[in-house]
């Protein structure tokens, strides 16, 4: 059995967690990155648009319904901060033989877990098969979203192949042609960079207008995002602070601090009322993105933001 060792971490925000995997080593001769993600040059069929709940970007996440190899409908969370897609461990009996193991740990406890890696099953949006990575990880997703029957997290191994538009006014997620995303104004363009190894996507800006420090694009963060806790000058600005109860992956209740900045800046534009948390890196979250018509043209490595509200 091939063994793939990775570090599993949950990123807690306002009301939940999303899954992030960091590859550490592999006993496979070619790179684990290529093994997991496959060929980025393949252009898949364009799936139909799908609706999501109007609460998305307003304290909640983007959820879509997918089918697993012609089976029943399954609820998935769309998470650009997750390098790979994750299925709930209850689906393991339907995934065939395990091809590896995943050593994981949660940052808010000392508990370590060992989960499985499986050949990726066929996932469908409507009647269109989604192009994803070669493998999927499994985990107990009831800890991620205890109030919904969450069965999967759709990560960047899949999303990177698509030009994805998030319309929060119409509550629609659209798949566009990367070469011709449309004649309408898509808004201001921001170049995106992809990390090597575990697939994260970054923009060269952050929410206080300081350039030169990449920010992770993370739809699995339901707040406006996060700032590096080392940015001392940022946390000295006048702001409101409050704490809220957050449930960790182990079910424990913790207090978390959230900072309300009266205003921030991104891409040269000013934005009021940003809810940010201190973190080890800069993050652009879903609440900030929801102020725009968002177009992620991942094959062209460009993000477009057309501002619609404050």
Give an overview in words.
- It contains 4 helices and 24 strands.
- The chain has 310 residues and is mostly beta strands.
- It has a domain at 188-307: Acid Proteases (Cathepsin D, subunit A, domain 1), CATH 2.40.70.10.
- The longest helix has 6 residues, at 32-37.
- Mean pLDDT is 78; it is low at 1-31 and 104-111.
Layout of strands and helices, then pairs:
Layout: E1 4-12, E2 17-26, H1 32-37, E3 50-51, E4 63-68, E5 73-78, E6 86-88, E7 98-105, E8 112-119, E9 123-125, E10 128-129, E11 135-139, E12 150-154, H2 156-159, E13 163-167, E14 172-176, E15 188-194, E16 201-203, E17 215-217, E18 225-228, H3 232-235, E19 240-247, E20 253-266, E21 269-279, E22 282-284, H4 286-289, E23 292-297, E24 302-307
Parallel strand pairs: 5-12, 6-11, 17-22, 18-21
Antiparallel strand pairs: 1-2, 3-14, 4-5, 4-9, 6-12, 7-8, 8-11, 9-10, 13-14, 13-23, 15-16, 15-24, 16-17, 18-22, 19-20, 20-21, 23-24
């Amino acid at each position: 059995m091939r063994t793939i060792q990775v570090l599993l971490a949950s990123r807690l925000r306002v009301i939940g967690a999303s899954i992030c995997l960091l590859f550490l080593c592999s006993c496979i001769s070619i790179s684990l990155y290529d093994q997991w993600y496959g060929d980025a040059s393949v252009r898949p069929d364009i799936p139909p648009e799908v609706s999501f709940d109007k609460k998305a970007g307003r304290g909640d996440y983007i959820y879509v319904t997918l089918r697993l190899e012609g089976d029943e409908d399954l609820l998935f969370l769309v998470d650009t901060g997750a390098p790979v897609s994750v299925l709930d461990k209850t689906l393991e009996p339907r995934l065939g033989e395990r091809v590896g193991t995943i050593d994981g740990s949660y940052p808010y406890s000392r508990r370590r877990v060992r989960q499985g890696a499986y050949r990726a099953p066929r996932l469908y949006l409507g009647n269109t098969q989604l192009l994803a990575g070669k493998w999927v990880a499994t985990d107990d997703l009831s800890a991620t979203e205890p109030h919904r029957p969450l069965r999967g997290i759709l990560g960047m191994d899949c999303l990177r192949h698509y030009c994805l538009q998030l319309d929060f006014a119409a509550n629609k997620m659209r798949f566009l042609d990367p070469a011709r995303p449309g004649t309408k104004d898509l808004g201001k363009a921001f170049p995106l960079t992809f990390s090597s190894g575990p697939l994260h996507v970054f923009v060269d800006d952050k929410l206080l207008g300081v350039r030169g420090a990449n920010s992770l694009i993370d739809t699995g963060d339901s707040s406006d995002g996060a700032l590096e806790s080392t940015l001392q000058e940022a946390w000295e600005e006048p702001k409101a602070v409050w704490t809220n109860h957050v449930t960790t992956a182990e079910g424990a209740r913790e207090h978390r601090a959230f900072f309300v900045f009266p205003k921030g800046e991104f891409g040269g534009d000013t934005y009021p009322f940003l809810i940010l948390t201190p973190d080890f890196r800069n993050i652009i979250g879903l609440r900030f993105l929801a102020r725009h018509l968002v177009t992620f043209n991942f094959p062209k490595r460009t993000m477009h933001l057309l501002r619609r509200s404050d």
